[in-house]
Amino acid sequence: MANSELIRSLPKAELHLHLEGTIEPETLVELSRRHDADPLTTEQAHRLYEYADFHGFMMAFKAVTQRLLIADDFELITYRMIERLKAQGVVHAEVYISVGVVHWRKQEFEPLFEGIERGRERGQHDFGVSVLWIFDAVRHFGVEAAKPVFELAVRYKDRNVVGVGIGGDERKGPAEPFKALYQYAAENGLRRTAHAGETTGPESIWAALNIGAERLGHGLSAPSDAELIEELSHRQIPVEICMTSNVLTGCLPEIHQHPLRRLFEDGLLVTLNSDDPAMFHTSLVREYEIAQDVFGFTDEHVRELARNSLEASFLAAEDKVRVLDRFDQAAHSSTR
Questions:
Q1: Which of the residues are catalytic?
Q2: How would CATH label the architecture of 4-334?
Q3: Helical (H) or strand (E) element with 90
Q4: What DSSP state is assigned to residue 49?
């Protein structure tokens, strides 16, 4: 049985979390009442969160995000996200914002970001959770569409934007063409992530490393390449594991087939994350519970995973030292 009390008590970070994927059906109904001539019922909203595969998930994500129209909408979902993070013992989160989707909808991002930042400021004040933003481009929209996303990230890097990434369909948007953009981001002081090896083979993970990704989202196909495992272990490249996500998007037939345990035992710097928790009917605490219930992780393993999440964060050095000290005190108390 998972030690849920320990899991909740440990200070930890969530590093692979999409802001738009935190919108609960009840909040979606609230947004629908603001904007739709014929608002969604609670039952209709819940049905939007059911799908059979990765394509179905992308369509559901589209249905949810099309009701994010004004700054107040983004302020609302940001604040509620931070409230839920606090309840799970999260002290820091690095959250993807789908700027590429906003542009695709022909919306002006700048005023929406003001709402996001209002929500972050209120949430941090009320709940004490720090949040940094990662601006996410949609890889299958191409490099030209990604360029303004990266430029916005540079413009806002002094407003809690810590990095950039590429999400979306790996099969339609290979990483290599984004190399110059990643170099541009690095030259301007931004950290770099990439979804890699979620729906494709290990070649996608190699490509992400080759363009300069410092942290990898999913990494599901890594175990099929022994040389890659050795590289990830040697370089201690953090891997953002999202188990429930991988099953519900059809990337894995069942949770028992997830390579979490192997990646952990092979010495990789693995972290647990919820990805789109509302859409995947999960939470960060639940992902830790799965590690214990399904894969036999001990309480000491759980402490290691939680500490990994803070180690793998993009926090400034002095902030990282502070949260790690806080973690070590809490972990020590939990072993008494």
A1: 198
A2: Alpha-Beta Barrel (3.20)
A3: strand 90-97
A4: T
